[in-house]
């Protein structure tokens, strides 16, 4: 009788522990999903910035072509073309840096997705384990109730003797 109660208490503790772990993994999953969303927003922002920079580079390249044409007709235009060329070079460097940052963020996003999938599988496994423990608990509770009825019946029968 005491063994059954002890076993029931142990099963309850295990079920509670499994539920706590499931909650912990759910919280970790939410955190990873939030991080994932932030990374996606950052990627979108950097992609937009990169597009703007590329557009600006194209405009500056057109300006450089225009100034180069004017430079042939005057020495003053040569200085402006050099200035524009420096601006283009700076913008190209910024664009390369943005591309590098986007690649790094994409890698981090991929890693976050992998971690998220891993934790989702862990949560599913814990939920399955919890369900199994709950099923075992219900089965043991039923056996306990049946044993208690048999014990009560036996006690009445012994009392009647």
Fold topology:
Layout: H1 2-73, H2 75-160
Helix pairs in contact: 1-2
CATH topology: Helix Hairpins
Number of E strands: 0
Strand residue percentage: under 5%
The major β-sheet equals:
none
Quick one: overall form? rod-shaped
- Give the termini separation: 24 Å
Output the radius of gyration: 35 Å
Number of alpha- plus pi-helical segments: 2
CATH architecture: Orthogonal Bundle
Unreliable spans: none
What class would the helix/strand composition place it in?
mainly alpha
According to CATH, what is the class?
Answer: Mainly Alpha
- Taking all residues together, what is the mean pLDDT? 87
Number of domains: 1
SSE run = HH
Helicity level: over 70%
Jot down its keywords.
single chain, 161 residues, mainly alpha, Helix Hairpins
Structure summarized in a few sentences:
The protein is an all-alpha fold. 98% of the residues lie in helices and 0% in strands. It comes from Lindgomyces ingoldianus.
Structure report:
This is Tropomyosin. 98% of the residues lie in helices and 0% in strands. With 161 residues, it is mainly alpha-helical. It has a single domain, classed as Helix Hairpins, CATH 1.10.287. The radius of gyration is 35 Å and the shape is rod-shaped. The mean pLDDT is 87.
